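Deliverable D4.2, example record:
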Amino acid sequence: MNKMKNTVRGATAVCKVEKGQYIVAIGREGIFRMIDHHLKSLFPFPFRIVKLIRVSSNFYAVGEKGVFLKSSDGGKTWDHKFLPTTTTIWSVVGDASGLVITHGNNCLFFSYDFGVTWSQVKPFERLRENMPSIRSLCLLGHSLFIGTKIHLKYGGIWKLDLKSLKMTWMKKEKDFMVSSLVVYEKYLIAAGGSCNGTKGKIEYCYLSGRQYEYLWNELEQIESQASFLDVTEDDGFIYATSSQDKKGVSTVSRVYFENNIVVPCNTVKGHGWRIANDKQHYVVAGHYEIKHSSQLYEQATFRNSNLKRVLH
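Output generated by the structure prediction step:
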């Protein structure tokens, strides 16, 4: 087992295994198990993995060139295949029944047997040459929420009814990429932004309201971000990561949902690609370093005083 050196080793994806343990994907090196500050190689792999998830006893991973990976034994062994797309797959979701859904550029791939066999669905087919590209997915029961990359005409957030395959346009965006989607209680939380300017935002929508009426609210930010790249939730603790600023540093933020505010709590060198958390403990897959919550933010005292001022 090798000791982790944050200053020289970045990561592209991270997923919680169990309390205090995570698995991370590092560049084109493969998948590693992370315990405290140590990394153990699980599966050497020459393609970049950008998303890792755990669904019941299975782990799924996706990445560049349409690669899909699966482990059914806690990450000890992995099988992989390439789905029929040349694009990078940014998101994958699933449930305990064996349903797994991932995506191509503007299509979806469905598996009903834990990723063994696949079929293709084209949710934007009626848009023809104006189909937006998919960036994020979130599954809740029979609803699949789809976040798009920037698209001037049909960008934003869509909902696919898995029973009827009917699409609903929940939120329209023309200069905003929906990087990450997560459901918290009865709310859909969306995070994203653009590479230019300070248009990053985290918004939420109540899902139990009247059908076709989706009212969105934006969370207040103490510090504006150009783009949020990922959001994670565990037991009511919500964290988000951002793209890097002009100094090459990205921000880790705690989302205080009940207080409607996003508060910075740490920094990471390079883009904060992914984040996973176990309640208040988190691990960030940063471009140039892997950062965990035990590594205190050098301005923590200032942040804590700022937080107390805001929340009280």
